[in-house]
Amino acid sequence: MDFAFGSADEGFRAAAREWLAGHLVGPYAELAGRGGPGSEHEGAAARRAWERELGAGGWIGLGWDRAHGAYGNRAASLTQQVVWAEEYARARAPGRVGHIGENLLAPTLLTYGDEAQRRRFLPAVARGEELWCQGYSEPDAGSDLAGLRTVAVRDGAGYRISGQKIWTSLAGEADWCFVLARTDPGERRHRGLSFLLVPMDQPGRIEVRPIRQMSGTAEFNEVFFDGAVARAGHVVGGEGAGWRVAMGLLALERGVSTLVQQIGFAAELGEVVAAAVRGGALRDPVLREQLVRQWAELRVMRWNALRTLGAAGDAGAPSVAKLLWGGWHQRLGELAMRVRGAAAALGPRDWTAQAPYELDALQRLFLFSRADTLYGGSDEIQRTIIAERVLGLPRVER
Predict the structure, then answer these.
(1) Which of 31, 155, 313, 350 has its Cα between 20 and 30 A from that of 257?
(2) Mean pLDDT over all residues of the chain?
């Protein structure tokens, strides 16, 4: 495909750069460039305010399909979406807490939702006023999502939801959760599932428990549903269509969102290279070769993401992308420690009883990236999807 920036794109770039420079001030400037992977939940109040700032500027939902109308966001071409992502990363703007609603829920509602659902939820996401989390994985159904046990029982004009979700990003900050649950107990595996939109503010019916990771952060959470209520009108795609909707949502985790992720990866790689220069690790030919390989592989991932932007219906594209970036990011974390040698074992500050577990950004990167080949579907699951849906190999009986 022809992917180049034209004069309109450069004008859009200038507008984006000017807006970011004028609004990344005060508490937002303090958040800029702070923390590392998995720290998006920190400074929650300022991050929520930043989402509203982005919404007021029309910078949320640039890539949304406008066939059903606009919802408070500005129109932007594919190249302009990439321009915005590049400028946002260049400005080291705060990590987003609204990305799940913007990049996953909204396109799903535009594809599978009805007009009432789009009118109710999309403007609030575009204004940065409502945050979302994703209720998919469970303790016994992580990568094997079809084995989930959370149930939703019809109760008058709505549903009562009972069960547990785990590894739920930003659940403590979210106002809503899209939950995959079983609404037909007579069916098994991927049949009889529904995709429900559930308000999180239900004391006594929804409990969120942060999961403290070895990086010291707690972006992920356990979520317990004990008779939580969802309206019948908030079932996306209709009852029993949950698997189709859920798989459609997972397919959205490619394309521009993948390119945005890679811009962040490039910034992290730059920090690792800078650490190698400062510490003299570049004199080691093996480490130098590994850094060059990381750079080359990132370029390959970029071109693969550009290729898949036009690959509608490519069932294996999300799995291929996940295999590529999960292993790459994990190797980057390992390199971040290797270039620093023994100094990588030391924290940025001396131990104190008040702050016994201080890590710098590269140490967080290393520890957080250990999970990259597990969350979002383990490497083994991704290879199975590619084998069955792309290569046509015999399916494994489950």
Answers:
(1) 31
(2) 87
